[in-house]
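Fill in residues.
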């Protein structure tokens, strides 16, 4: 009796329900106010049951959160037009697993459509990012559309009805906008990957991965991957709509930790964000297992994940505020980016809980927020890159200065060796005079002393000349100085005289123009040839062979000077493309920094270039230096 009364009540309501009337003036309309909704918790209803009203409860609810139930809708439409019209039915929410559509003319089933992201496209009339189907309705014809929804995610239980021209226009706009978004993200990923491989900073890798998973999530949840028909496994594609945002959250945490160097500056925030990173890993594994083995996990834990995700971005925002308080470069841009992204996360969270009606423009909220966030993050990273560049320049300058001092120290050692013999002569002569005094031969002291004076003067003059040459060679100046190339190199070689003689090295300096001068930075010029001479002499000391040669040729060109430095100390054993890189050396116990500094000084101080060859046992360095450089 109760069942009969319910059936009569349902029949009365459906007979008096609004029929959605279509005509030529309607370009777009949705079915929210013209449908009933039935929840099928036991999964035992059919389209025939819905058509005849054989169910217990119905409502007009249009949006549903996470649920294991099936949901049915029933909508009646009528064509008030005088001609047969084509319409597109489109569900606005992409990512729905399965949608079955049954179209009845009175009690006769006219057409069945099987839609949803877990179904292939081969039987579809329309290839679209969202579930859509095409149907024709004749003048004054009345049809009943019954729909069955089955999905783990939230659902919009209504359809948008569009005329074909309107649908094509809107679908084209959607594709263009998402294409622009994808292009922007691709360029951003490429740029930050280049920065990562160039600077070797984990920060840019974390940022790149964060961007990648944001992009993947947006393209997956908006149905773009399905539309592109990339022949990806549909179960995998659906799973990524759950898993990609978790990975996005994970790399966001790591990015913020690395950006602010929290492990050095704030242990509390560091361990807190590390905790959220660990929770992201836990939820990734949990949802992965749940999707493929136990779907009830999504219902039990999805809200917990959404809340934890929201909290994690709150703490990222708090971290950026702390960074602003500590006056860390770029913190203000991180804060602005997080505010924008948080607003989009709030919107997505409300949407996924089924507490708001979805619109065609809802999918653009997060892409717009992501673009704005990435722009502000890029501003923050530009600040970081600028600081890194300044730090690098300071470190490089300090390295060059330290190398300069090392070379000066080596040169002082060379001078001390050159002084040993003159000092030994002076010491012998003084001891001889002291011995005469001890033997009470004062009358002989005067004669011997007078005889020694020329030799003493020569010895002292030799030592003084060595010091004068050292001082003249190493007069430190940041200004551009005019120097005679051949004389300057020969003076430098003279300071190596002790090592050159000791290792039996023949050194020749040849110039096509002995008066050739250039306006350059003398200190930088000298340091280049100090490094080359040190390398050659060190190699000769190691080899200890005869006929050791260093040959330097000076060749004037139009606007520059070509200087060829070569030796026969065994050639270069390393790949020629590697020798100017820092810490690359074939010499045991050496730092491998010399040639790197040489190239840096030559490029940045003298605005010159260098080429290198290795032919048999000879190393040949060809240096090109402008005749005049700006101060």
């Amino acid at each position: 009796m109760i069942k009969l009364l319910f059936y009569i009540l349902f029949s009365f309501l459906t007979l008096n329900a609004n029929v959605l009337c279509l005509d030529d003036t309607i370009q777009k309309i949705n079915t929210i106010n013209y449908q009933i909704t039935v929840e099928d918790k036991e999964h035992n209803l059919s389209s025939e049951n819905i058509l005849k009203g054989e169910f217990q409860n119905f409502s007009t609810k249009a949006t549903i959160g996470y649920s294991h139930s099936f949901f049915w809708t029933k909508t009646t439409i009528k064509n008030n037009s005088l001609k047969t019209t084509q319409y597109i039915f489109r569900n606005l929410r992409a990512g729905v697993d399965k949608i079955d559509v049954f179209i009845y003319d009175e009690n006769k089933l006219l057409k069945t459509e099987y839609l949803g992201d877990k179904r292939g496209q081969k039987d579809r009339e329309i290839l679209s990012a969202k579930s859509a189907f095409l149907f024709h309705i004749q003048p004054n014809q009345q049809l009943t559309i019954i729909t069955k929804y089955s999905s783990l995610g939230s659902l919009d239980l209504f359809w948008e009805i569009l005329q074909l021209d309107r649908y094509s226009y809107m679908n084209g706009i959607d594709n263009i906008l998402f294409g622009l978004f994808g292009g922007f993200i691709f360029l951003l990923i490429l740029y930050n990957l280049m920065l990562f491989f160039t600077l070797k900073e984990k920060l840019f890798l974390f940022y790149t991965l964060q961007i990648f998973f944001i992009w993947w999530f947006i393209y997956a949840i908006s149905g773009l991957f399905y539309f592109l028909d990339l022949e990806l496994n549909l179960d995998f594609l659906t799973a990524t709509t759950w898993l990609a945002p978790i990975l996005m959250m994970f790399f966001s945490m790591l990015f913020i930790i690395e950006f602010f160097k929290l492990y050095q500056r704030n242990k509390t925030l560091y361990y807190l964000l590390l905790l959220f990173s660990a929770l992201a890993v836990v939820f990734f594994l949990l949802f992965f297992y749940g999707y493929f083995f136990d779907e009830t996990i999504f219902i039990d834990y999805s809200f917990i994940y959404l809340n934890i995700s929201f909290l994690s971005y709150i703490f990222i925002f708090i971290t950026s505020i702390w960074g602003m308080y500590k006056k860390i470069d770029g913190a203000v841009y991180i804060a602005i980016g997080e505010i924008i992204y948080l607003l989009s996360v709030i919107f997505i969270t409300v949407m996924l809980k089924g507490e708001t009606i979805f619109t065609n423009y809802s999918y653009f909220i997060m892409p717009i927020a992501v673009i704005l966030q990435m722009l502000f993050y890029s501003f923050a990273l530009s600040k970081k890159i600028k600081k890194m560049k300044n730090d690098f320049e300071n470190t490089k300058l300090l390295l060059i200065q330290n190398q300069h001092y090392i070379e000066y120290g080596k040169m002082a050692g060379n001078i001390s060796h050159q002084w040993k013999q003159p000092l030994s002569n002076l010491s012998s002569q003084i001891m001889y005079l002291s011995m005469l005094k001890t033997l009470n031969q004062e009358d002989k002291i005067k004669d011997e002393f007078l005889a020694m004076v020329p030799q003493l003067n020569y010895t002292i003059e030799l030592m003084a000349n060595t010091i004068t040459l050292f001082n003249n060679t190493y007069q430190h100046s940041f200004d551009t100085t005019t120097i005679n190339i051949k004389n300057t190199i020969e003076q430098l070689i003279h300071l190596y005289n002790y090592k050159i003689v000791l290792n039996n090295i023949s050194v020749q300096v040849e110039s096509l123009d002995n008066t050739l001068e250039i306006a350059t930075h003398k200190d930088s010029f000298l340091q280049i040839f100090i490094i080359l001479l040190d390398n050659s002499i060190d190699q000769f000391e190691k080899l200890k062979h005869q006929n050791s040669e260093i040959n330097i040729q000076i060749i004037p060109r139009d606007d520059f000077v070509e200087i060829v430095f070569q030796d026969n100390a065994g050639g270069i054993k390393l790949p020629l493309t590697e020798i100017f890189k820092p810490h690359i050396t074939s010499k045991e116990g050496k730092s491998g920094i010399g040639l790197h500094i040489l190239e840096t000084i030559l490029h940045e101080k003298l605005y010159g270039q260098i080429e290198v060859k290795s032919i048999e046992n000879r190393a040949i360095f060809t240096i090109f230096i402008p005749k005049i450089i700006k101060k």
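The first helix runs from residue 2 to 16.
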